[in-house]
Specification:
The structure holds two protein chains of two kinds. Chain A is of the alpha+beta class. In chain A, 29% of the residues lie in helices and 20% in strands. Chain A has nine helices and twelve strands. In chain A, a hairpin with a 4-residue loop joins strand 1 (12-16) and strand 2 (21-24). The longest helix of chain A is centred in the middle third of the chain and has 17 residues, at 97-113. Chain B is an alpha/beta fold. Chain B has a domain at 30-89. In chain B, 26% of the residues lie in helices and 18% in strands. The longest helix of chain B has 14 residues, at 41-54. The chains are: A alpha+beta, B alpha/beta. Chains A and B meet through helix 1, helix 3 and helix 5 of A and loops of B.
């Protein structure tokens, strides 16, 4: 396993929460073996740990929260194809060794090395299946848009992993929209309920846009910026509709926020990734957790040999 | 043939320490109240402060910058050096 990286085995990659244990390359490699990784996956595991063990990502808080979230890992760049990662059919599911074992290795490091076991520091009320480990690649070759990593300031030739604190994915079905306008409204309608239809701002989100949905935008010549600008319009809320008590629902915004229009996500708070099988008019939404310095920010790290 | 088994854990054991002695009375002692910044935690701690003051304790209030992260080391040190006892509130 150690042959998968040029880094020395005693190099400390990160302080692994919650116990802030020095995570050496060797200790990570032991867990990667247990997860079923091949040696060439190890650089991705190391970069993912560097990403989540930061103050910005706040892995301690992600572990400790009662909300059902964990690190969602997205790989961009040449390494994805080089190590055989899946960005296509069943991309968020099982069946690909790299996708399955990289996320698993990261979770094992947190548990075995960091001490973040469920029932201990991990207090998730429900958890989700992605906490077994979730890692997937973006389909860059099939996308007309810049990639997630490019959007986050990296070059297409760089290999990166982006960590996003998220729930399990849920499906958005739209099999009838033939125009980008209709599909955007439809996606927005589903995104409005991410985490809770009564909550705005405060939490980020991820949208995994499938190839057949992306085709609507490709055909119409919409780029990522146009899509996000249009989508943001449909993600504005009249706060009166979601104030605590409105429609007989006690969950909602504090009364002091009545009479405003607020967006669902903060600027840049919705990460859009292109992935999935070539057939199927479905996309997926992954709701986030508390965003920003008081919670978790997405973090991207370059994957180095 | 020798088999080497590698340990995936930190190979550490938590340090054990004796608990501080419980005070006989709170009268005249300084009690720190740590608000972790969850909504309505302050409501709970306001009532606790009233009750402690009625017992003759001096109360000092502290707050974490955010409930999502561990209390900063400086804050923990401040509480440890300024207080005889501490109460931490978790609320929603």
């Amino acid at each position: 396993m150690l042959g998968g990286t040029t880094r020395p085995s005693d190099e400390v990659v990160a302080l692994i929460p919650p116990n802030l244990v020095e995570g050496t390359v060797e200790k990570v490699a032991v867990n990667a073996v247990m997860a079923g990784c091949r040696p060439e996956y190890l650089p991705v595991v190391l970069a993912a740990l560097e990403a989540i063990c930061t103050d910005e990502f706040n892995m301690h808080g992600v572990l400790a929260t009662t909300m059902s979230v964990g690190p969602i890992l997205v790989v961009n760049g040449p390494i994805a194809a080089a190590i055989g990662m899946n960005s296509g059919i069943n991309v968020l599911g099982h069946g690909n060794r790299a996708n399955s074992s990289i996320g698993r290795a990261v979770q094992l490091v947190l548990r075995n090395l960091g001490g973040g076991a469920p029932g201990g520091i991990d207090r998730a009320t429900l958890g989700h299946m992605g906490k077994q480990g979730i890692c997937f690649a973006e389909d860059e070759a099939g996308s007309p848009w810049n990639s997630l990593a490019e959007e986050r300031g990296f070059d297409r030739s760089q290999s990166t992993v982006t960590a996003f604190c998220g729930e399990g994915p849920h499906l958005v079905v739209d099999q009838l929209s033939r125009s980008p306008e209709s599909l955007t409204r439809s996606l927005a309608a589903s995104l409005r309920s991410a985490v809770s239809p009564r909550l705005v701002l405060g939490m980020d989100g991820m949208l995994v846009l499938s190839p057949e949905h992306m085709a609507r935008y490709r055909d119409a010549g919409w780029d990522r910026a146009r899509f996000l600008a249009e989508l943001t319009e449909y993600l504005m809320f009249d706060t009166d509709e979601i104030i605590a008590g409105a429609d007989g629902i006690e969950e909602g915004l504090p009364p002091g926020l009545a009479g405003h229009r607020l967006p669902k996500f903060r600027p840049g708070g919705l990460l859009v990734v292109h992935a999935g099988g070539p057939a199927g008019l479905f996309s997926a939404i992954i709701g986030g957790w508390i965003s920003g310095p008081g919670g978790s920010d997405p973090v991207t790290r370059e994957i180095t040999p | 043939m020798t088999t080497t088994v590698l340990d995936p854990t930190a190979e550490q054991r938590p340090a054990t320490r004796e608990r501080s002695q419980r005070p006989e009375s709170l009268s005249g002692l300084t009690v720190g109240l740590l608000d972790i910044s969850k909504p309505r935690g302050d409501v709970f701690l306001d009532r606790v402060e009233e009750a402690l003051c009625a017992l003759g304790a001096r109360v000092t209030r502290y707050a974490k910058p955010t409930f999502t992260k561990p209390a900063p080391v400086d804050l923990r040190h401040e509480i440890a050096t300024q207080c005889d006892a501490v109460i931490e509130a978790l609320a929603d």
